Amino acid sequence: MDCLPAAKRRRESKDHGDVEPSASAAAPVVVLAHGAGAPSSSDWMKRWKRMLKEALQAADVVTFDYPYITGKKKAPPKAEKLVDSHSEIVKQTAAKYPGHPIILAGKSMGSRVGCMVASLEDINVSAVVCLGYPLKGINGAIRDETLLQLTVPTMFVQGSKDTLCPLEKLEATRKKMKTPNELHVIDGGDHSFKIGKKHLQANGSTQEEAEDHALKAIAAFISKSLDGQ
């Protein structure tokens, strides 16, 4: 992995222009799915696409839009109804990058659908990265069935103040999961990892530093998962 801190890599990228890394056979390809309320063109998605590519030295980070979000504005359907379109993108990506390990990543709803896709028999992925997994449903019920079915290594990145994923509930779920899994907590982060100014000041930290720590944790997890294959 690149030993440069992520913040320094970003500065050098700005100074020297975006340089595409050489796509070796070992370089992972990430399929990054958006959340329920914002498309792949949102600022959050574009920023995390760039940061994941740098942190993982990925050959590519593929983003896409679920069909509902490109039509008339409406509430997203149940996650299960998005599996087909998501899995088709994964299959197309695997065909485009033969020999490269495929990593599924997603924000909120996109991570939940990604976990469903990872469990399909005709899908072969090396790991899943959940960025703000929505463990708790609208009715307050804990939705852990999808996670308990997973058989690929799974990484959770969660804000400590994320009301959609109480950390104690996630910890109980992780203990029941049958696949290797890890958790990185962004202290003070909400569902989108945003940290309040007072919290940052009290801890002498910045939003970028908190995200850099998360990216390093993701990179270490993916590296370990790929080495174990």
UniProtKB/TrEMBL annotation:
Entries under InterPro entries matching the protein: AB_hydrolase_fold, KANL3/Tex30_Abhydrolase, NSL3/Tex30
Source organism, top-level taxon: Eukaryota
Residue span(s) of domain KANL3/Tex30 alpha/beta hydrolase-like: 28-222
Any matching Pfam family: Abhydrolase_11
Residue ranges, annotated region (Disordered): 1-23
PANTHER family recorded: TESTIS DEVELOPMENT PROTEIN PRTD, TESTIS-EXPRESSED PROTEIN 30
Name listed for the protein in its UniProt record: KANL3/Tex30 alpha/beta hydrolase-like domain-containing protein
Organism: Arachis hypogaea (Peanut)
